[in-house]
Design goal:
The protein is an alpha/beta fold and about 450 residues long. The chain folds into three domains: about 120 residues, 3-Layer(aba) Sandwich (Rossmann fold); about 220 residues, Alpha-Beta Horseshoe (pyruvate-formate lyase- activating enzyme), CATH 3.80.30.20; about 55 residues, OB fold (Dihydrolipoamide Acetyltransferase, E2P). It has a six-stranded parallel beta sheet with strand order 2-1-3-4-5-6, with helices on both faces. Strand 5, helix 5 and strand 6 form a beta-alpha-beta unit. Helix 12 runs parallel beside helix 13. The longest helix is centred in the last third of the chain and has 24 residues. Bound molecules: S-adenosyl-L-homocysteine (SAH), iron/sulfur cluster (SF4) and FE3-S4 cluster.
Amino acid sequence: MSTESQSGPRVYLETYGCQMNIADSQTVNAVLRRAGYSSAERPEDADVILLNTCAIREHAEERVLGRLSDLARLKSRRPELKLGLLGCMAQHNRATLVEKASYLDLVAGPDSYRRLPEMLRNASFDPAVDVRLDRGETYADITPDHDGSIRAYVTAMRGCDKFCTFCVVPYVRGRERSIAPDDLLREIRELAARGVKEIVLLGQTVNAYRHGASDFGALLRMVARVDGVERIRFTSPHPSDINDSLIDAMTTEPKVQPYLHLPVQSGSDRILAAMDRGYTVAEYCSLVERLRRAIPALALSTDIIVGFHGEDDSDFRATLSLVAEIGYDSAFTFKYSVRENTRAHKLGDSVSDEEKGRRLSELIALQEKISLDRNLTNIGQLFKVLVEGPARRGNAMLAGKTPQFKTAVFPAVEGIRVGATIAVRVESATAHSLICSLVA
Ligand code: SAH
Ligand code: SF4
Ligand code: F3S
């Protein structure tokens, strides 16, 4: 939130979960700022504390409940402090939350943020709860508060209609809806005018985007026309919604970067069918082949769940083989977590937590090796890197991303500005970053 207006009540907002939640928090900040609120840097300084939460796995919810009970201590010392839960977990646990956390003043789902000021005004009675899902809500007229970095996340579509059997997202985020290209382009032009160089279009199945005659490929081509935007990325595309229009935009628009996060979830057809993912292993592999033929520089990452109901050792081995065969640049891996409301909930858990842990470790070890091997092949190659700021490892190094979304670190030489695109040569590599020298 902007710190310009320091007069109104102060809000401290903490965000959990995926990039869509980060983008939603920027919308929440914009809504509250318009209503006269200002921002607090620390919970101790706030009049209102809000947690924007994630429900994707049990662990995500446990973290939030732990944090809530910490914050409740603040509230017991300052009863006028308002404590609110936003986002996917608010939507998911609406029935039980109010009892579980009796100190909550406010519970608001992802489609209720427009009404937050009103809810906060009324929150002194009993918890103000608004978890109506609204298939018309896109927040298209609310320009999110951008954090000032060179990369901006722009929500292109909300919700999900896929209903994979393990996943809570369609229940907590509601039906798929796309934001009009004109509204998106207006926001993106404003961001570009403020120095944003890279736009990341967001949606749970972002390539299911459709508005009037525009599909996702058409949207990419429109965004590429915006002056000042240098790089375009998007996440997450669903394998079933990749079409020629999207591939064409990736091959013909130089601003669209050669990187795809293409969640596969499992390498076993039996498990993919039980998850209702809508593709087979062979279909996924031929899609990857088609993408790599069209976009030779393409980097790929994925999401994988181990220990889904019914996954036996041979299913898991099939996942390992697929991971080795595709050769992902990186992967996000998760132990299956049974979620209430989902279609797979009634099946329960058939794999013990220890066994899930064992499979997860084996998968991570394999992927680390593959990531390292792939990064080692980059040694000696040149890449264009968009400079983001100091490297995490510090010691006078800067960091930025290659077109393939790999982290490049390089010496912080006088004159290199954040937001500039520079050329680097890869000198050495780890599984997670490329260590580079500058190219004159
Ligand atoms: N929309 C994206 C995924 C969003 S959720 C897609 O369809 O690919 C991010 C990741 O969390 C998923 O890809 C999946 O790997 C993981 N995930 C979702 N539900 C889960 C569950 N119940 N248990 C474990 N991991 C889960
Ligand atoms: Fe969840 Fe499947 Fe939708 Fe992704 S596509 S958000 S995994 S239901
Ligand atoms: Fe979590 Fe909601 Fe994102 S459940 S992963 S914050 S859409």
